[in-house]
Specification:
Blueprint: H1 13-20, E1 24-29, E2 34-42, E3 48-57, E4 60-64, E5 67-70, E6 75-80
Subcellular location: Cytoplasm; Nucleus
Domain Sm: 12-84
Family: Belongs to the snRNP Sm proteins family. SmF/LSm6 subfamily.
Length: 84
């Protein structure tokens, strides 16, 4: 498909998620907490496994975890971690 100048090509969510696998990511869940760590794997239900994970509540670090499993029905946002 040709795109017009100045327009961005759309990207499917699955393609985006594949691009950030194995990289630092931020996952926000429905209680407002954010988990930051390396995105190890995820499935079609958006169940997520992360390693080296930190939990932030209100922007403040609350806990450090090794590996975490986040159930997909609690996930509201997944994105790349901001550069430090």
């Amino acid at each position: 498909m040709d795109s017009m100048p100045g327009q961005h090509e759309t990207q499917r969510p699955a393609d985006f998620l594949r691009q950030i696998l194995g990289r630092p990511a931020v996952v926000k869940v429905n209680n407002g907490a954010e988990y930051r760590g390396n995105l190890v794997c995820l499935d079609g239900y958006l169940n997520i496994v992360m390693e080296g994970t930190e939990e932030f509540v209100g922007g403040e670090l609350k806990r450090r975890y090794g590996d975490v499993f986040l159930r997909g029905n609690n996930v509201i946002y997944v994105g790349p971690a901001p550069a430090k």
